[in-house]
Write a structure and sequence with these properties.
mainly beta, UDP N-Acetylglucosamine Acyltransferase, domain 1, nine-stranded parallel β-sheet, 34% strand
């Protein structure tokens, strides 16, 4: 019943009424915390001073803890038997997906922890089969990155495969560029920058910049590239585009 009442309060009532009513339900919500209209089904909710949850979110979780000035943006989908814990100024931006399947083993809890000032920006996919921990002032930047905490190793022959589950640990002052994929069980040390479109399939334990491949120069001009492409059709067979209106555009 409390989950349902929490959801109705967060979705339907004016912002100024939400903190005191949620406190009556046993949640810890500071007077200056703000919750925009969102569907929030949660067992425990704790929002510090100036913490906020934006509009249009769908959140079904066990526990949400947002400390001072932490926030969740708009249009996020966060689903599963999971917990969110954000240190001061920790943030999830907009239109992210954070999922933990109810079919997964619940023997271990799964927590998305963002240290002070750490942020998941926009349009990312987070698999929370196992916990993911960000240190302080780290960023999953740009858009389109994926962080996975489960996967499979397929045998070299036959249909056999083995399941791999593992928590992901990201240190302090880490920057992960757009379109990157982080695999299960990975540790990224502090002061690491990961270039865009990188596949992180092994631990990154040395500070510095990591990229998937070296950018190289290929001395090939556009005209040469065209000559190497297959010919779609001879010029005389290519469709001619003609104006079919009442008059030519340049004579209208």
């Amino acid at each position: 019943m409390r989950r349902l009442l929490t959801a109705l309060i967060c979705l339907l009532l004016p912002a100024r009424l939400k903190p005191p009513l949620l406190r009556l339900l046993g949640h810890r919500v500071a007077a200056f915390a703000r919750i925009a209209p969102s569907l929030i089904l949660v067992n425990r909710l704790a929002l510090g001073k100036s913490a906020r949850i934006g509009p249009g979110n769908v959140i079904l979780a066990r526990r949400i803890v947002l400390r001072e000035r932490a926030y969740i943006g708009y249009g996020n989908v966060i689903l599963g038997p999971l917990c969110l814990g954000f240190a001061p100024m920790g943030a999830v931006g907009n239109r992210n997906v954070v999922i933990r399947s109810r079919a997964q083993s619940l023997a271990l809890g799964a927590v998305l922890w963002l240290g002070e000032g750490s942020k998941i920006t926009a349009g990312h996919h987070i698999d929370l089969t196992r916990s993911i921990r960000f240190g302080e002032w780290s960023t999953l930047a740009g858009k389109g990155s994926q962080v996975w905490t489960h996967g499979y190793i397929h045998l070299s022959t036959g249909p056999g495969r083995s399941r791999v589950d593992g928590r992901v640990t990201i240190g302090d002052n880490v920057y992960i560029g757009a379109g990157s994929v982080v695999g299960p069980g990975i540790t990224i040390a502090s002061r690491v920058s990961v270039g865009s479109l990188s596949s992180v399939a092994t631990d990154l334990l040395e500070p510095g910049l990591w990229v998937s491949q070296k950018l190289r120069h290929i001395a090939l001009m556009p005209e040469e590239r065209v000559t190497r492409l297959p010919i779609i059709s001879p010029p005389e067979e290519r469709e001619q585009v003609r104006w079919k209106g009442p008059s030519r555009p340049d004579k209208a």
